[in-house]
DNA sequence: CTCTACCATTGAGAAAGATCAACGGCGGAG
DNA sequence: CTCCGCCGTTGATCTTTCTCAATGGTAGAG
């Protein structure tokens, strides 16, 4: 896996204190595992460009995609010195990495991470509501609204860079249930499927109602 | 609700910069709603003593307990200037509150919050795995292990300060399913129920296996 | 151009959990 | 002390989602 295409020292978050804790920018292909759950947690990372998913596994192989990340989001968090999640790119991405020790030395970095952690924690709270209390159809509606930037015009079509299995692992469903939910949304006219991975939201109002005011 | 019993200016995190952003410690009775989802987010809070649960509601009344907090944990997070969750005490608690602006002025506070956010984000990742991929029995086992401090001796009994409904709302189940799971764990000898809210873990190994190495 | 993965869709049957309902116990109010 | 109300338990049934299985589409390799 780890098909890191390019690595260069970062022009990102450079500051006088950072002499021995350099930031590095990685350019990574799609479908690359950037880090592994359980590995020693040496660095903390930010998505600069692209999309990354964080996953956790149960011993028997059940998988949960715990978070979907875009530009600005932070990952590589540690519990007991080990990464709590694996991270895999969904699209070609640029990732900025920092020594963990830089957190104590670089207040600008620390402040940015603090703001971002707060945002990501709020998103996780919403996701808990989705996973704990929403039906399959509601989950898929929520997922599509979350991907579709608010200001996006009605005509624009959304490209999904996830398979049905990945969406299912994110929403706590099976791939068949996700597929059925897509078909149901299409049948109700809330959504148009140009291709399996090309979606247009037709009736945003009904989608929002389904997703519980997302 | 809001039965605040006592308020006093905090001896907590006092620092020279904090002249106009004082910390305040609140002493709060059990079963008190400390803040409401949607209210303007003016302050950020830390649990000093006691236990707090964060909840979110869907428009039709379905509820999810998104996080359980103990001493050191932070809440009062905001999305768009409004609290993302309601917060309710489970036991009599002491809560320290800070102006949000203190975050920019008090680096000690900011550093503490950064560490805590990272820990809470990791816990939320685990919880997503629980909600998305675990069976009812596994969820309840996970819940009990999470409450039972690691070092706790076999003989010690755990007091649950949550009703079956609250546990269900935390685990994404119904209260009946939670009750059945407790009975099943008892029947299998993994747990002893002295009273409905008094539990002893009898077979920690089997519990850990059920909970997927929690 | 064709073949071949892989991915998505759809259907039928099974299982887990939700819902509806009745009963029992414990604790606080009077 | 007794009553009443809330909470928990258990049972029966129903719904949703999972599981298993077959079929169809699409994109990349040869």
TrEMBL record, chains A, B:
UniProt KW keywords: DNA-binding, Transcription, Transcription regulation
Pfam families named in the record: cNMP_binding, HTH_Crp_2
Natural source organism: Ancylobacter mangrovi
Name this polypeptide is given: Helix-turn-helix domain-containing protein
Residues annotated as domain Cyclic nucleotide-binding: 33-76
Domain HTH crp-type: 134-205
Keyword GTP-binding: no
One GO CC annotation: cytosol
Record-linked CDD domains: CAP_ED, HTH_CRP
PANTHER family documented for this protein: CRP FAMILY TRANSCRIPTIONAL REGULATORY PROTEIN (PTHR24567), FUMARATE AND NITRATE REDUCTION REGULATORY PROTEIN (PTHR24567:SF75)
GO molecular function term, any single one: DNA-binding transcription factor activity
Taxon lineage: Bacteria, Pseudomonadati, Pseudomonadota, Alphaproteobacteria, Hyphomicrobiales
Transmembrane region(s): none
